[in-house]
Specification:
Strands 1-2-3 form a 3-stranded antiparallel beta sheet. The radius of gyration is 15 Å and the shape is globular. The chain has one domain (3-102). Helices cover 45% and strands 24% of the residues. It contains 2 helices and 3 strands, in the order αβββα. The model has no long low-confidence stretch (mean pLDDT 84). It starts with a helix and ends with a helix. By secondary structure, the protein is α+β, with helices and mostly antiparallel strands. Bound molecules: zinc ion. Zinc ion (ZN) is lined by residues 49, 51-52, 54, 80, 83.
Length: 103
């Protein structure tokens, strides 16, 4: 694979991940930062990422996320490092939009 096509491939994958993340946030499958979050990072252990639905390989960064609802920790799921940052960014964007909508 040439460097140029590798970049294009990555770009397309990111767009797909963003689309899935937005759909899962809209359906309520993924929470959106209203509850305090706790996160742990490490190397992949083969868990399935809640954003992209792919296994997190050993060489990849795996992030476990918990939200605290009414003082009780609740597992959100496991994320690839990159999928977690996309999720957080989409959450921030959604929050900005809802603030604008309420104003
Ligand atoms: Zn992922």
């Amino acid at each position: 694979m040439t460097q140029r096509s590798a970049l294009r491939h990555t770009h397309r994958t990111l767009r797909q991940v963003m689309t899935v993340a937005r759909a899962r946030m809209a359906s309520g499958e993924l929470p959106c930062g209203t509850a305090p979050l706790r996160m742990w990072g490490g190397y992949g252990s083969g868990k399935v990422c809640v954003v992209c639905g792919k296994a997190i390989e050993r060489a990849e960064v795996e992030i476990e996320v918990e939200e605290t609802v009414g003082g009780t920790p609740k597992l959100v799921g496991w994320f690839h490092g990159v999928c977690q940052s996309i999720w957080q960014r989409e959450c921030a964007r959604a929050a900005r939009f809802s603030i604008v909508a309420e104003a």
